[in-house]
Amino acid sequence: MATHVSELSIEEFKELISESVRTSFEDMLEDYTAMGSPEFLRSIVEAREQYKRGDVTPLEQLSGV
Length: 65
What we know:
Elements: H1 10-35, H2 38-53, H3 59-63
């Protein structure tokens, strides 16, 4: 596997850029869709309120560590 851009073929470089753009676009579309959801927005407000109150679960409990 190439470790420097200069070691990539033109096709490999194009594929790398295309995949990066595709992933970024999919993430942006997902965020846009989620932000248009009143239920999603309410869940963000609720989560922030829970965090401020300290109503959280330590990571160690979630991961079983």
